[in-house]
Protein backbone atom coordinates (compact mmCIF):
# COMPACT_ATOMS: atom_id res chain seq x y z
CA UNK A 1 0.00 0.00 0.00
CA UNK A 2 2.11 2.80 -1.36
CA UNK A 3 1.31 6.45 -0.94
CA UNK A 4 3.24 9.20 -2.65
CA UNK A 5 2.72 11.68 0.16
CA UNK A 6 3.95 9.21 2.80
CA UNK A 7 6.99 8.34 0.74
CA UNK A 8 7.95 11.98 0.30
CA UNK A 9 7.48 12.70 3.99
CA UNK A 10 9.50 9.68 5.05
CA UNK A 11 12.31 10.34 2.55
CA UNK A 12 12.62 14.01 3.46
CA UNK A 13 13.13 13.00 7.08
CA UNK A 14 15.53 10.23 6.09
CA UNK A 15 17.60 12.55 3.87
CA UNK A 16 17.82 15.14 6.66
CA UNK A 17 18.90 12.51 9.19
CA UNK A 18 21.48 11.03 6.83
CA UNK A 19 22.95 14.26 5.55
CA UNK A 20 22.98 16.37 8.68
CA UNK A 21 24.81 19.59 7.95
CA UNK A 22 26.96 18.37 5.07
CA UNK A 23 26.66 19.17 1.42
CA UNK A 24 25.23 17.00 -1.32
CA UNK A 25 26.22 17.04 -4.97
CA UNK A 26 24.10 15.79 -7.81
CA UNK A 27 24.71 15.44 -11.52
CA UNK A 28 21.53 16.82 -13.06
CA UNK A 29 20.93 15.59 -16.60
CA UNK A 30 17.43 16.97 -16.97
CA UNK A 31 16.02 13.47 -17.34
CA UNK A 32 13.17 12.19 -15.17
CA UNK A 33 15.25 10.36 -12.54
CA UNK A 34 17.89 12.96 -11.75
CA UNK A 35 15.23 15.70 -11.86
CA UNK A 36 13.00 13.98 -9.32
CA UNK A 37 16.01 13.17 -7.13
CA UNK A 38 17.04 16.84 -7.25
CA UNK A 39 13.54 18.08 -6.38
CA UNK A 40 13.21 15.61 -3.50
CA UNK A 41 16.62 16.32 -2.00
CA UNK A 42 16.08 20.05 -2.46
CA UNK A 43 12.79 19.77 -0.58
CA UNK A 44 14.68 18.11 2.26
CA UNK A 45 17.86 20.16 2.56
CA UNK A 46 17.49 23.20 0.27
CA UNK A 47 20.76 25.06 -0.13
CA UNK A 48 22.89 22.16 1.05
CA UNK A 49 22.27 20.63 -2.38
CA UNK A 50 24.43 21.64 -5.34
CA UNK A 51 23.63 20.34 -8.81
CA UNK A 52 25.99 20.16 -11.74
CA UNK A 53 24.74 20.08 -15.30
CA UNK A 54 27.38 19.06 -17.82
CA UNK A 55 26.99 20.76 -21.19
CA UNK A 56 28.91 18.26 -23.29
CA UNK A 57 27.95 19.79 -26.62
CA UNK A 58 25.90 16.68 -27.40
CA UNK A 59 22.63 18.08 -26.11
CA UNK A 60 19.43 18.82 -27.97
CA UNK A 61 18.54 22.32 -29.08
CA UNK A 62 17.49 24.49 -26.13
CA UNK A 63 18.18 21.77 -23.53
CA UNK A 64 20.69 23.66 -21.44
CA UNK A 65 18.57 26.82 -21.36
CA UNK A 66 15.52 24.77 -20.39
CA UNK A 67 17.27 23.02 -17.50
CA UNK A 68 18.78 26.26 -16.20
CA UNK A 69 15.50 28.13 -16.38
CA UNK A 70 13.52 25.37 -14.70
CA UNK A 71 15.83 24.45 -11.82
CA UNK A 72 17.81 27.59 -11.21
CA UNK A 73 15.17 30.23 -11.88
CA UNK A 74 11.97 28.39 -10.90
CA UNK A 75 13.11 25.97 -8.26
CA UNK A 76 15.96 28.14 -6.94
CA UNK A 77 18.24 25.14 -6.86
CA UNK A 78 21.97 25.85 -6.69
CA UNK A 79 22.78 24.70 -10.21
CA UNK A 80 26.17 25.05 -11.87
CA UNK A 81 26.69 24.48 -15.56
CA UNK A 82 29.97 22.91 -16.63
CA UNK A 83 30.65 24.36 -20.03
CA UNK A 84 32.60 21.58 -21.67
CA UNK A 85 31.49 21.38 -25.29
CA UNK A 86 34.97 22.19 -26.62
CA UNK A 87 36.61 19.51 -24.48
CA UNK A 88 34.16 16.80 -25.55
CA UNK A 89 34.40 17.66 -29.24
CA UNK A 90 38.18 17.69 -29.04
CA UNK A 91 38.29 14.25 -27.41
CA UNK A 92 35.78 12.86 -29.91
CA UNK A 93 37.44 14.28 -32.98
CA UNK A 94 37.90 11.65 -35.67
CA UNK A 95 36.43 8.84 -33.55
CA UNK A 96 33.68 6.91 -35.31
CA UNK A 97 33.26 3.55 -33.57
CA UNK A 98 30.15 3.68 -31.33
CA UNK A 99 31.58 1.98 -28.24
CA UNK A 100 34.77 4.03 -28.51
CA UNK A 101 32.63 7.17 -28.59
CA UNK A 102 30.61 6.00 -25.57
CA UNK A 103 33.79 5.31 -23.62
CA UNK A 104 35.27 8.73 -24.39
CA UNK A 105 32.01 10.49 -23.53
CA UNK A 106 31.69 8.54 -20.25
CA UNK A 107 35.28 9.16 -19.18
CA UNK A 108 35.18 12.83 -20.11
CA UNK A 109 31.92 13.24 -18.23
CA UNK A 110 33.46 11.80 -15.07
CA UNK A 111 36.48 14.06 -15.42
CA UNK A 112 34.41 17.21 -15.94
CA UNK A 113 32.14 16.32 -13.08
CA UNK A 114 35.08 15.65 -10.80
CA UNK A 115 36.72 18.96 -11.73
CA UNK A 116 33.59 20.97 -11.12
CA UNK A 117 33.07 19.25 -7.78
CA UNK A 118 36.58 20.16 -6.68
CA UNK A 119 36.01 23.77 -7.56
CA UNK A 120 32.70 24.21 -5.77
CA UNK A 121 32.53 22.28 -2.57
CA UNK A 122 35.16 21.62 0.03
CA UNK A 123 32.83 20.00 2.53
CA UNK A 124 30.77 17.79 0.25
CA UNK A 125 30.20 14.40 1.76
CA UNK A 126 27.48 12.93 -0.43
CA UNK A 127 26.99 12.23 -4.09
CA UNK A 128 23.32 11.91 -5.01
CA UNK A 129 22.08 9.81 -7.90
CA UNK A 130 18.65 9.12 -9.33
CA UNK A 131 19.09 5.35 -9.23
CA UNK A 132 15.80 3.44 -9.45
CA UNK A 133 14.93 -0.08 -8.36
CA UNK A 134 15.22 -1.56 -11.89
CA UNK A 135 18.71 0.01 -12.17
CA UNK A 136 19.69 -1.67 -8.94
CA UNK A 137 18.63 -5.05 -10.31
CA UNK A 138 20.06 -4.60 -13.79
CA UNK A 139 23.40 -3.41 -12.52
CA UNK A 140 24.00 -6.66 -10.70
CA UNK A 141 26.49 -8.82 -12.51
CA UNK A 142 25.48 -12.47 -12.45
CA UNK A 143 28.38 -14.71 -11.35
CA UNK A 144 31.55 -13.60 -13.06
CA UNK A 145 30.02 -13.16 -16.47
CA UNK A 146 30.46 -9.49 -17.41
CA UNK A 147 27.99 -9.97 -20.29
CA UNK A 148 25.24 -10.34 -17.72
CA UNK A 149 25.78 -6.73 -16.68
CA UNK A 150 23.01 -5.12 -18.71
CA UNK A 151 23.81 -1.51 -17.99
CA UNK A 152 25.64 0.59 -15.49
CA UNK A 153 25.08 4.00 -17.01
CA UNK A 154 23.31 5.39 -13.98
CA UNK A 155 26.45 5.26 -11.93
CA UNK A 156 29.09 7.88 -12.30
CA UNK A 157 31.59 5.04 -12.43
CA UNK A 158 34.29 5.00 -9.78
CA UNK A 159 33.62 8.58 -8.79
CA UNK A 160 32.30 8.10 -5.25
CA UNK A 161 35.37 6.13 -4.13
CA UNK A 162 37.86 8.46 -5.80
CA UNK A 163 36.16 11.52 -4.35
CA UNK A 164 35.58 9.80 -1.01
CA UNK A 165 31.87 10.49 -1.29
CA UNK A 166 29.02 8.53 0.19
CA UNK A 167 26.16 7.71 -2.15
CA UNK A 168 22.71 9.15 -1.59
CA UNK A 169 20.08 7.37 -3.67
CA UNK A 170 16.65 8.32 -2.40
CA UNK A 171 14.74 6.72 -5.33
CA UNK A 172 16.38 3.30 -4.98
CA UNK A 173 13.21 1.51 -3.96
CA UNK A 174 10.99 3.02 -6.67
CA UNK A 175 9.75 2.01 -10.09
CA UNK A 176 9.40 4.56 -12.86
CA UNK A 177 5.68 5.19 -12.42
CA UNK A 178 6.24 5.86 -8.71
CA UNK A 179 9.08 8.26 -9.52
CA UNK A 180 6.74 10.14 -11.84
CA UNK A 181 4.12 10.38 -9.11
CA UNK A 182 6.74 11.73 -6.69
CA UNK A 183 7.95 14.28 -9.26
CA UNK A 184 4.42 15.47 -9.93
CA UNK A 185 3.69 15.80 -6.21
CA UNK A 186 6.87 17.86 -5.82
CA UNK A 187 5.66 20.30 -8.49
CA UNK A 188 7.76 19.25 -11.48
CA UNK A 189 5.99 20.05 -14.76
CA UNK A 190 4.48 17.34 -16.96
CA UNK A 191 7.15 18.08 -19.60
CA UNK A 192 9.81 16.80 -17.21
CA UNK A 193 7.95 14.02 -15.47
CA UNK A 194 6.71 12.42 -18.69
CA UNK A 195 9.77 13.17 -20.75
CA UNK A 196 10.99 10.56 -23.22
CA UNK A 197 14.25 8.79 -22.34
CA UNK A 198 17.42 10.31 -23.77
CA UNK A 199 20.71 8.38 -23.83
CA UNK A 200 23.60 9.55 -21.67
CA UNK A 201 25.95 9.91 -24.68
CA UNK A 202 23.28 12.10 -26.24
CA UNK A 203 23.58 13.17 -29.85
CA UNK A 204 27.03 11.58 -29.78
CA UNK A 205 25.42 8.25 -30.70
CA UNK A 206 22.91 9.86 -33.07
CA UNK A 207 25.46 11.43 -35.37
CA UNK A 208 26.61 8.22 -37.00
CA UNK A 209 30.35 7.90 -37.37
CA UNK A 210 32.64 10.77 -36.52
CA UNK A 211 31.20 13.82 -34.81
CA UNK A 212 31.58 17.43 -35.90
CA UNK A 213 29.92 20.66 -34.77
CA UNK A 214 28.33 21.04 -38.20
CA UNK A 215 26.72 17.59 -38.12
CA UNK A 216 25.52 18.15 -34.55
CA UNK A 217 23.89 21.42 -35.56
CA UNK A 218 22.09 19.89 -38.50
CA UNK A 219 20.83 17.06 -36.27
CA UNK A 220 19.73 19.51 -33.57
CA UNK A 221 17.63 21.53 -36.00
CA UNK A 222 16.04 18.45 -37.56
CA UNK A 223 15.32 16.86 -34.19
CA UNK A 224 13.78 20.09 -32.91
CA UNK A 225 11.31 20.05 -35.80
CA UNK A 226 10.43 16.40 -35.19
CA UNK A 227 9.78 17.03 -31.48
CA UNK A 228 7.75 20.14 -32.30
CA UNK A 229 5.47 18.17 -34.62
CA UNK A 230 5.24 15.25 -32.18
CA UNK A 231 4.16 17.70 -29.46
CA UNK A 232 1.64 19.46 -31.68
CA UNK A 233 0.02 16.16 -32.61
CA UNK A 234 0.07 14.97 -28.99
CA UNK A 235 1.87 11.81 -30.07
CA UNK A 236 5.05 12.79 -28.22
CA UNK A 237 3.40 11.54 -25.00
CA UNK A 238 2.15 8.30 -26.54
CA UNK A 239 5.34 6.88 -28.03
CA UNK A 240 8.39 5.58 -26.18
CA UNK A 241 10.92 7.70 -28.05
CA UNK A 242 10.96 9.93 -31.10
CA UNK A 243 14.19 11.35 -32.47
CA UNK A 244 16.26 12.05 -35.56
CA UNK A 245 19.50 10.39 -36.57
CA UNK A 246 22.16 12.06 -38.69
CA UNK A 247 23.35 9.83 -41.54
CA UNK A 248 26.79 10.68 -42.85
CA UNK A 249 25.88 10.09 -46.47
CA UNK A 250 25.02 12.68 -49.06
CA UNK A 251 22.17 12.37 -51.48
CA UNK A 252 21.14 14.51 -54.40
CA UNK A 253 18.18 16.83 -54.06
CA UNK A 254 16.96 19.94 -55.82
CA UNK A 255 16.15 23.45 -54.59
CA UNK A 256 14.53 25.63 -57.28
CA UNK A 257 16.61 24.56 -60.23
CA UNK A 258 19.82 24.02 -58.29
CA UNK A 259 21.27 20.67 -57.40
CA UNK A 260 21.44 20.17 -53.62
CA UNK A 261 23.95 17.49 -52.66
CA UNK A 262 23.37 17.14 -48.92
CA UNK A 263 22.97 14.87 -45.90
CA UNK A 264 20.19 12.44 -45.00
CA UNK A 265 18.16 12.49 -41.78
CA UNK A 266 16.47 9.36 -40.47
CA UNK A 267 13.33 9.64 -38.34
CA UNK A 268 13.11 7.02 -35.57
CA UNK A 269 9.88 6.71 -33.58
CA UNK A 270 9.18 3.62 -31.48
CA UNK A 271 6.68 2.15 -29.07
CA UNK A 272 7.97 0.09 -26.18
CA UNK A 273 7.24 -0.96 -22.63
CA UNK A 274 10.75 -1.31 -21.27
CA UNK A 275 13.14 -0.71 -24.20
CA UNK A 276 14.06 -4.40 -24.29
CA UNK A 277 11.85 -4.80 -27.34
CA UNK A 278 10.35 -2.08 -29.51
CA UNK A 279 8.17 -1.64 -32.55
CA UNK A 280 8.26 1.27 -35.00
CA UNK A 281 5.32 3.63 -34.63
CA UNK A 282 2.72 3.76 -37.37
CA UNK A 283 2.59 7.55 -37.52
CA UNK A 284 -0.13 9.15 -39.66
CA UNK A 285 1.09 9.81 -43.22
CA UNK A 286 0.07 13.47 -43.02
CA UNK A 287 2.25 13.95 -39.96
CA UNK A 288 5.19 12.22 -41.65
CA UNK A 289 4.67 14.47 -44.64
CA UNK A 290 4.77 17.62 -42.48
CA UNK A 291 7.88 16.42 -40.64
CA UNK A 292 9.69 15.60 -43.86
CA UNK A 293 8.67 18.85 -45.59
CA UNK A 294 9.73 20.96 -42.67
CA UNK A 295 13.09 19.25 -42.22
CA UNK A 296 14.05 19.43 -45.89
CA UNK A 297 12.81 23.03 -46.23
CA UNK A 298 14.02 24.46 -42.93
CA UNK A 299 17.28 22.66 -42.24
CA UNK A 300 20.17 23.63 -44.46
CA UNK A 301 22.41 20.73 -45.29
CA UNK A 302 19.64 18.12 -45.52
CA UNK A 303 18.30 16.95 -48.87
CA UNK A 304 16.31 13.89 -47.80
CA UNK A 305 14.39 12.39 -44.89
CA UNK A 306 13.94 8.64 -44.45
CA UNK A 307 11.84 6.66 -41.98
CA UNK A 308 13.25 3.82 -39.90
CA UNK A 309 10.81 0.87 -40.00
CA UNK A 310 12.92 -1.60 -38.02
CA UNK A 311 11.77 -3.33 -34.85
CA UNK A 312 13.91 -4.33 -31.89
CA UNK A 313 15.10 -7.03 -32.16
CA UNK A 314 16.88 -7.43 -34.50
CA UNK A 315 17.55 -3.68 -34.72
CA UNK A 316 18.10 -1.60 -31.58
CA UNK A 317 16.30 1.64 -30.77
CA UNK A 318 19.38 3.81 -31.23
CA UNK A 319 21.40 3.41 -34.42
CA UNK A 320 24.69 3.10 -32.57
P1 LIG B 1 18.93 0.39 -27.60
O1 LIG B 1 19.51 1.27 -28.66
O2 LIG B 1 19.94 -0.49 -26.94
O3 LIG B 1 18.39 1.37 -26.48
O4 LIG B 1 17.72 -0.39 -28.10
C1 LIG B 1 17.57 1.00 -25.40
C2 LIG B 1 17.30 2.24 -24.55
O5 LIG B 1 18.50 2.69 -23.93
C3 LIG B 1 18.87 3.99 -24.39
N1 LIG B 1 20.33 3.95 -24.62
C4 LIG B 1 21.24 4.45 -23.77
N2 LIG B 1 21.09 5.10 -22.60
N3 LIG B 1 23.43 5.29 -22.42
C5 LIG B 1 22.19 5.54 -21.94
O6 LIG B 1 22.07 6.15 -20.88
C6 LIG B 1 23.67 4.64 -23.58
O7 LIG B 1 24.80 4.46 -24.00
C7 LIG B 1 22.49 4.20 -24.28
N4 LIG B 1 22.32 3.54 -25.45
C8 LIG B 1 20.99 3.40 -25.63
C9 LIG B 1 18.06 4.22 -25.66
O8 LIG B 1 17.81 5.61 -25.89
C10 LIG B 1 16.81 3.43 -25.38
O9 LIG B 1 15.90 4.16 -24.59
Automatic annotation (TrEMBL):
ATP binds at residues 29-35. GO terms for molecular function: ATP binding; GMP synthase activity. It comes from the Bacteria. Coiled coil: none annotated. The keyword Iron-sulfur does not apply. Homodimer. This is GMP synthase [glutamine-hydrolyzing]. It comes from Nibricoccus aquaticus. The lineage of its organism: Bacteria, Pseudomonadati, Verrucomicrobiota, Opitutia, Opitutales. The chain holds residues 194 to 513 of 513 of the full protein.
Amino acid sequence: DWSTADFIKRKIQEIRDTVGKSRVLLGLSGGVDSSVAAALIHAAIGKQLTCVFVDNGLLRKGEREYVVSLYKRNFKIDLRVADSEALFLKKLKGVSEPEAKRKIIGNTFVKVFEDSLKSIAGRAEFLAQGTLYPDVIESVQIGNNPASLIKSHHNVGGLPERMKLKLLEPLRELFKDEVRAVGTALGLPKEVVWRQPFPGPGLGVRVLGDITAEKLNILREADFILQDEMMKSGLYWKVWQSFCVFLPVKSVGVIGDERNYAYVIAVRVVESIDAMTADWSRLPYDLLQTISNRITNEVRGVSRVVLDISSKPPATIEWE
